[in-house]
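Input (structure):
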């Protein structure tokens, strides 16, 4: 008697909870003890039926990461690739999301969360730069935004 769950039904249940990439779903089904040939068949059937779609998954993740979590383009790309999504699929999803979002406004919102008052000194400047870099914003945009604030906060000579 086989104690492994039916890969197709288990996959449907997992996808009912949240969007998963093919790689994520394959890993979860394998952890549940489903045989490889059943996983392959289940993934093919789920793709055919439209329940499993890496492009849709990438788009949903990128949209949430940008709009809700305030992450930048570079970090979202890294996270999508870490989830096992194809680089081209990830890039297309991120480009689509960032066509609808103003990246400078997103960067300013992230900076406003962390910055209370003026930038005090170069150490404070560096910490803010590192924070925004970890969020995945482009270094040139970070530098421009921080320098503009740092100049405004500097006392006139």
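Output (sequence):
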């Amino acid at each position: 008697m086989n104690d492994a769950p039916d890969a197709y039904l288990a996959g449907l249940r997992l996808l009912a909870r949240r969007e998963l990439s093919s790689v994520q779903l394959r890993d979860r089904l394998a952890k549940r003890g489903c045989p490889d040939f059943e996983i392959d068949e289940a993934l093919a059937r789920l793709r055919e039926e439209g329940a499993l779609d890496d492009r849709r998954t990438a788009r949903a993740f990128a949209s949430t990461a940008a709009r809700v979590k305030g992450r930048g383009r570079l970090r979202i790309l890294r996270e999508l690739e870490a989830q096992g999504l194809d680089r081209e699929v990830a890039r297309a999803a991120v480009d689509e999301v960032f066509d609808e979002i103003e990246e400078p406004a997103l960067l300013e919102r992230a900076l406003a969360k962390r910055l209370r008052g003026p930038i005090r000194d170069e150490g404070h400047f560096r910490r803010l730069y590192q924070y925004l870099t970890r969020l995945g914003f482009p270094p040139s945009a970070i530098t421009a935004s921080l320098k503009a604030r740092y100049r405004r906060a500097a006392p006139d000579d």
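Notes: The two ends are 83 Å apart (CA to CA). The chain has a mean pLDDT of 91.
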